[in-house]
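Researcher: I'd like a candidate sequence for this fold, 119 residues long. If you have to choose between options at a position, lean toward the conservative one.
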């Protein structure tokens, strides 16, 4: 992904050997805050259909609605973790898997080979 390319591509493009996930557009929460909207609004974090992702398998493309975001709940969870010893808002094992995926993608990009993931 690139914010400086002459023609922007998808926001996310995850490719596997049997399927892909493609997502266009940015998360709507930041722009809504800039427009003076509030996280208390009932449709907060909902994305327009044009920003939904797609699962692609061969010639088939199936829309996949993006789950509504809630940055404020994440940061409230971070505060509760630090102040009250509550569980983290993201499971540590999930955070580790995310870091491993990013590292494998970086290695694949740099070397041109498929970097294996631990299962």
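Model: Candidate sequence:
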């Amino acid at each position: 992904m690139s914010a400086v390319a002459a023609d922007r591509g998808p926001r996310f493009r995850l490719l596997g050997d049997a399927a892909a996930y493609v997502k266009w557009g940015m998360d709507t929460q930041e722009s809504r805050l800039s427009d003076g909207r509030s996280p208390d609004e009932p449709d907060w974090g909902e994305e327009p259909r044009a920003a939904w992702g797609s699962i692609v398998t061969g010639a088939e493309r199936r829309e996949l609605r993006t789950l509504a975001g809630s940055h404020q709940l994440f940061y409230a969870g971070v505060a509760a973790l630090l102040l009250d010893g509550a569980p983290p808002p993201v499971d540590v094992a999930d955070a580790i898997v995310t870091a491993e995926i990013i590292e494998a993608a970086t290695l694949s990009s740099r070397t041109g080979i498929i970097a294996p993931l631990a299962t």
